[in-house]
Design a protein that fits this description.
Length: 97
């Protein structure tokens, strides 16, 4: 697989960085980034999206997983848009491989 195709596939199937620490901290979920020493506080949706970032699911598949776990979600297209937004935030923070 060419580097460009591999890079595109990685973007299509996000994988959380192995060294990022994901934990429950009281009622909230957090990601600690040891590279930047930043603590990211997540809402429930973002925490679930993170938990599905294992490199095996596309954003659309992550959205389907969310609809299986959460109730009262908007339309599927809005859920996919939300997932993509969360993934973009993770990517911008350097939390994905």
């Amino acid at each position: 697989m060419s580097d460009v195709k591999a890079e595109a596939k990685g973007a299509d199937r996000p994988r959380a960085r192995d060294d990022a620490v994901f934990r429950s901290l009281g009622p909230e979920w957090v990601i600690y980034d040891p590279r930047t020493r930043l603590l990211h506080v997540l809402n429930t949706t973002a925490a679930l999206v993170w938990s599905f970032c294992d490199g095996s699911r596309s954003p659309e598949e992550i959205a389907r997983e969310l609809t299986d776990v959460l109730s009262d979600l908007p339309s599927e297209s809005l859920v996919v848009d939300e997932v993509r937004g969360v993934l973009d935030a993770f990517r911008n923070e350097g939390l994905l491989e």
